[in-house]
């Protein structure tokens, strides 16, 4: 008797075309992933204003600067940036490479880093903010992109790529719970983004089409991993997801960067972001931690770079079975390859079944 291979029961690997890598899937280890520790629903108890918070309006930051009495979003240079401008020139020797130069390569990186306060209210997060305020966040991202693009073009600043991201929650290393994200502007393109650009170019050469465009079409046809959809964007648990409830937000048509967005597309992005993050919070009735980031075209992109880029966002949340049970990448995953028990399809169904309009705290 020949048995059919069952992706919901038999171990297998799934290919990630964005990074040319594989993830091991072991669905037989978690036949019922919703079992496990159940936490009591908690209501966030942070105050609307915290006099000790470095990011609240009117407060003094660690640098000594005083925050303005802002009422919407606020962007300011990071007081402790990971990169800086006007560094001394790094001189590398040419010609033949010694053993030291082969193995101990170094490259100068210049740039600037920014903090983006989403709201003046200390006790809010994206899912709890009014939709109009989330639209303001999207607009702030766009204006920062345009500002830095202009500074690179007009003033000659060495800006090449703007990485916008948010670390939400202490589980993701967030040291300040005030709703905020960051933006690091570098003179280089970061590894993860560069690898995606290479994958996009390779796919285009092989198939004469866009990787993410084809992937959107496939997910809309199959709908097994589709979590959310509106006129402009989809959210899926990608087929190759590593984290239990990892999602990928992708524009339906090729938008190279935020600067290509119409007003409707900005609102559609804000709407789907709010709905997704409400679902995340409702999953384990907690303020759901994650790392989230935007991938888009470089600043002042060439036509070739624009043809390659396709706007999308990654969400990497660590929670597995409850508000306190986390997924760790250890052991085999550090030494071999990433592994997951919950399939992408199972994770998507869990997220689809959750409310996205009503936050769990509204029912407490």
Shape: globular
Measured by DSSP, the beta-strand proportion falls in 15-25%
Secondary structure: number of strands: 12
- Provide the helix percentage: 25-40%
Total domains:
1
Please describe the biggest sheet, giving its number of strands, its sense, and whether it closes into a barrel. Answer: 9 strands, antiparallel
CATH superfamily: HIT-like
Instruction: Using the CA coordinates, give the radius of gyration.
Output: 22 Å
Number of helices: 8
Uncertain spans: none
- The helix-strand sequence is EEEHEHEEHHEEEHEHEHEH
Q: Which secondary-structure class do the elements indicate?
A: alpha+beta
Mean pLDDT: 93
Distance between the termini: 54 Å
CATH top-level class: Alpha Beta
Q: What fold name goes in the CATH topology slot?
A: HIT family, subunit A
